[in-house]
Amino acid sequence: MLVTIGWCSSAMTPKDSVQIVKANWSPKKIRPGVVHKHAPFKFLYGMPQNIHIIEVAPAGKRQSRLNLLVNEPPRTLSESARSVHAIAAINGSRFDKSNGKSLCFMKIGPDVIDTTSFGQLNGRATGALRIDKKGNINLIPWGRQIENSWAEQNSVVMVAGPLLIKDGEMCAFSQSDSVFIQERHPRSAIGITKDGSVLLVTADGYFPTHAVGMSIPELAYLMKMLGCKQALNLCGGAFTTMWVNHKDAVGVINMPSGNEVFDHSGEQPVANILYIR
Questions:
Q1: How far apart are CA 85 and CA 5, in angstroms?
Q2: CB 240 within 8 A of CB 205
Q3: pLDDT given at position 122
């Protein structure tokens, strides 16, 4: 799973690297060990982009914990986050809009919530978020054989994908649907940096003059430039949403595209969320 950029290589340049690393991210502390960062770009990958990051300090330096919440039936991220007294949240894994069920494997402790559909295992659901009973987080490769043999009883597992970065290297996406990989959409991701910090990231999209969105390789490159040694794509498109609760703002902070307006009001119901408390 080494770096394979191919058709998308022309979109990512040294200038993009410099922009990401040297951007004015305007950090705001939500609570000790949890920071919100935001930066708009006029020409990242040659297009306007709007990126938000929630950065959680490494284990041992943080008071907060990442959790998974399953919504039955789906509801907005705002409703879900408020219900669990979260301080920050992001949308989770893919789900079937017709019935609200997850399309990917989820297990909370001994309880299997859903399994991964065949279509998702065909190059999309190639990674998983694992949270152990102590709250330690890692991102791991995934497949049908791993899923069939997964027997842990004390961890939380949420499958998503594709896996973007493994062991500090961008992954190959040749087994995934090329349209899904190549087209620019709003994107969401989770990453773990070399020092153990956890990053929740959104890139808005579908707004040509404000935020176009990213392809999967562009998202992977962003996560690599942000210092991630592991990174995983989450559910994107109109479901890309980030929410925070701090003294300056309580609510959605990115620009979800569900209402086709570049504002904070376009969030859509989601079947699961990742939240910090």
A1: 40
A2: yes
A3: 81
From the list 161, 179, 173, the residue with the least C-alpha distance to 217 is 173
Cα–Cα separations (whole angstroms), residue 73 to 79, 93, 120, 270: 12, 15, 21, 9
Nearest one of 188, 182, 208 to 260, comparing CA atoms? 208
pLDDT of residue 249: 78
DSSP-derived pairing of the beta strands 187-193 and 228-233: antiparallel
Q: DSSP state, 136?
A: -
The strand pairing partners of 112, in sequence order, are 107
Query: Can you tell me the distance from the alpha carbon of 124 to that of 163, in angstroms, rounded to the nearest whole number?
Result: 8
Q: Decide if 205 contacts 184 (C-beta within 8 A).
A: yes
Outline where DSSP puts E strands in the chain: 28-31, 34-44, 47-56, 66-75, 88-91, 106-108, 111-114, 127-131, 137-141, 156-160, 163-166, 169-170, 187-193, 198-203, 228-233, 242-246, 249-252, 270-276
Query: How many Cβ atoms from other residues are within 10 Å of residue 224's Cβ?
Result: 21
**CB distance 156 to 68 below 8 Å:** yes
What does the block give as tokens for 133?
């009973």
Distances in whole angstroms, Cα of residue 145 to Cα of each of 2, 33, 140, 149: 21, 37, 14, 6
Q: Block means of pLDDT (10 residues each) for the chain, length 277 residues?
A: 39 91 95 96 97 94 92 96 97 94 96 94 92 96 96 97 97 86 97 97 98 98 98 98 90 97 97 97
**Token digits for 203?**
């890139």
135: left (phi over 0), alpha (psi -120 to 50) or beta: left
Of 115, 139, 147, 158, nearest in space to 220 by CA: 139
Q: Which tokens in the block code for residue 232?
A: 């995983």
